[in-house]
Design a protein that fits this description.
Elements lengths: L1 E14 L3 E2 L2 E2 H11 L4 E6 L2 E2 L7 E2 L10 E8 L1 H14 L4 E12 L9
Antiparallel strand pairs: 1-7, 1-8, 2-3, 4-7, 5-6
Length: 116
């Protein structure tokens, strides 16, 4: 089955070391998206970047001490994205949230199948 149409995309930028309730912030965001039945969320780990603080964040290949830039990309209808925003206001202390309108094409292979 193929679905298409307009949607909203959020891109949430922060550091890999950011936490919320003793778990990685990116995991908390993905779990909240799933709880809200949002169509999709993907976590991307960057090589290097900086934001408003101008502190350069980068991944270190040979060390476990790192604070790589992270982006969580979330896509769904405007209504569902609006339900996520209050949660993000409470958990993203330092970061950037960008919202844009996108055209989506979604391929669904099995109706109603969801992983645990």
């Amino acid at each position: 089955m193929k679905l298409s149409g307009k949607a909203k995309m959020l891109r949430i930028h922060f550091g890999e070391n950011d936490k919320w309730n003793n778990k990685p912030l990116y995991r908390a965001i993905v779990e909240k998206c799933r709880e809200l039945d949002i169509a999709g969320a993907t976590v991307l780990r960057g090589i290097e970047g900086y934001g408003a603080s101008t502190l350069i964040r980068k991944a270190h290949r040979l060390s476990f001490s790192h604070d790589a830039p992270v982006m969580v990309s979330v896509i769904d209808s405007e209504e569902k994205i609006q339900k996520l925003l209050p949660f993000l206001d409470g958990v993203v202390d330092e970061g950037l949230i960008a919202m844009s309108e996108v055209e989506v094409i979604k391929y669904v292979h099995q109706e109603g199948v969801r992983s645990q």
